[in-house]
Design a protein that fits this description.
The structure is a homodecamer. In chain A, about 30% of the residues lie in helices and about 35% in strands. Chain A is an alpha+beta fold. Strand 4 of chain A pairs antiparallel with strand 2 (about 40-45) of chain B, so a sheet runs across the interface.
């Protein structure tokens, strides 16, 4: 079951760059693991923004919620979730 | 070069369903042809909306503009274009 | 799997009240049948608005999409879909 | 008398996680007590958000106001209140 | 139980002034009757707008909904409902 | 001359509850005095919000401005002012 | 007593240019008469818009409302009213 | 060449009232000097807001920009600039 | 004196394509003439939109207003005007 | 390939003017170098705002993203990116 998730990161003003970089590193590993499992299907960077457009393939709503809540950068993110389904014109 | 394009269709009130269906049929063929060419990479339906989320892989801005302007449903669409690029966490 | 769906009806200006009433009657029957099946769990009227707040329990995103697209009043509705999941404070 | 209440929590930046967790614990108990009394009828989590959708059954406007003002997390919440009533298509 | 209701009228473009005036006359009588009953407590005109700010004192949410749905001008109105309660600084 | 004034209070994060309570006490006395003078005609609490809807009867625009600027909570308020006049359907 | 009034004109699609020009002529005369009386103090055109920024000096709210309601173009206008008063830095 | 400029002041939370008052005094003198030169033609206070509506008569865009950037309160202001020109109905 | 002007065209639903094409032809000639005069410095198409971003170099506000009002497509356009001036980092 | 980029700077409240000036100096040099290379084609200041309107000519989306991310002021900016292409009425 597919969802588009758009994440915009607002880096905290009062955290050292080193501390923030270490969170980003954990985030990267977490994302890569979910990509390898086929759950986080796509992640693209939005040009000129500290933001991404992602596609998730999850078992249900709770599955997606759990994944998003565990994002190391979640406390610094605005997240917009859009449920998707097959389009009749898609050839896939 | 990747772009997210979100299209929302506003069916015209004063057109017969048959006429509108025939435009949708041409739209479907146009979309499928671009998908086969690897230009229209993804098209998903937004749940509960007459709208889609699409990913295009084009040579440049003009290429995308030409493709969108030729959409048979373009006169009845709201279109939002977002330029994308590779995300450092993507494993692809 | 639960979703909140908010529907606002914009009655068409150029349809006779009789014709619109007959669509509303089919809508009512369609809604009642889905309620009896336990799919359309709740429907409340928003005070002072031609709008409702509904809760659906569906098998997946596609299931919800199909149900909404078949709403007889769909062409005259604005629809907002919000995916829900269990709240840790819920006693149910 | 029914109301939909949507609550979004903005965790304070300058509070320790322990202190915030202890407020959330009191909030949970407060919510569970009102659920047991049949006043806080439903509470669902919004997927990907630190937010809930709730339905309250109260005696009047003042009753709802008092309940909301006593929410331990109220100072950190955006709250949207929508008065509801019976829908003619509801089978309940 | 008090509610603020703000009503903005959008006169229909395709109705004759005479027909619209006759609806406004019925609206005026309906409003005056509810004012005499102490239900429609206040009605003020917003300066420069075809709009009013009103205060209703009703028995419950359903009572308010019924009253608003019967407004002869309702099909031409945008309506915003805000539940009110006693303010601790009020001397009334 | 009547105005609707809507005030939303944003309590300062960095003030002690005692200090804020003492400002609210002065605010309450200020409001009560203006109510006794017939200038602050109505004040209602918005359900679930730290906000009020008020009606003022003042001699002119400057009079209203002076009153609002002297509100002890003014530095912590969002204020929206709407000029009102008699409604032709009012029976008062 | 001063008010800023901003008026944006939406010319009706279904009126002949001649008919609309004749309404604009009556509007011009009405505006000029109020300017001569010192009531409509200023009227400026917004660059690139079918819109004006105006300053009115009226006796009270009702006076302004009456003037605006009698504008021949009122049915085709969006109107925004802002009450003004003397600024402490003004040398007038 | 005329411009409407609307300025809203957001007093800094972390500055002493004395320090802010001294900036406001310089602002007042700066404004009065420009008024005497006929450049800052009008300044009105918006009722209930820490905001003004001003009209400037400048030689060109750069002239206006320079003037606004030198406002002592500029770092604490939201500024909206609207280019104006003569209105055909103006009798001036 | 420079201005950015953004124009979005809303093609009229009830005009024949031929009639609209003939207006667009006059628009094109009008634009080209102003470009040759160095007044309409730049015009770019917004990708995927029936809209342009333009830069004008005019003598003053009135000059710009006159030019925009004479655009053959003006009645079908939304127009946003932004005054510009030299940037301190520009090397031109 | 052209893009319009609009940048609005929000100077950090807690940085010394000297420190911020030194960042602005590096920003100026970075911008001038890209202008000399023909990549940052235009930069104009928005009148009355700490903001610019810029036109970039880049090889692709990633090129633009890299350039923007390296802006020394990027952490203090709101950035809006709009892809452009040739306009059929342009004489260039």
């Amino acid at each position: 079951m597919l969802f588009k998730v758009e994440m915009t990161v607002n880096p905290p003003k009062d955290m050292s760059p080193e501390q923030f970089d270490s969170i980003k590193l954990v985030e990267k590993e977490y994302s890569e693991e979910l990509q390898r499992q086929g759950i986080w299907c796509h992640i693209w960077r939005v040009v000129g923004q500290y933001a991404n457009v992602s596609i998730f393939d999850v078992t249900d709503n709770s599955h997606l919620h759990e994944i998003l809540m565990k994002l190391p950068l979640y406390p610094y993110m605005d997240v917009v979730v859009t449920p998707l389904c097959a389009h009749p014109s898609s050839i896939k």
